[in-house]
Specification:
Structural class: mainly alpha
Distance between the termini: 30 Å
Number of domains: 1
Largest sheet: none
Number of helices: 3
Amino acid sequence: MDPTHPTSDLLRSLKASILRLRQKAEELREQLERLGPDALEEGEQRQVAKLDSLIRDCQKVEKTLAEQTQGTSGTDNGINLEEARAEVTRRLSRLRAAAIGAEPDRHLE
């Protein structure tokens, strides 16, 4: 971590984590889709739909991070890290819930 720019290091790490999350979700969705809809049980088909939703959420977070950091030239101006962190936490909660077939933590919303 760069002590002179901790926010930029955090953002870089956050972007990388979201990218890895989206890539893993896309890989899992592709694996399930290769089985075909006839091979999937109803619960598994719902999981594919949840993965699609998670992928869209990741894309939204990636877009938001790009918009937030665009034009800041590595400074902290205009970046709300607390909101970004809260958004990532909510979306990770949805991912965990999708993985186990449960409802996401409502207290995070």
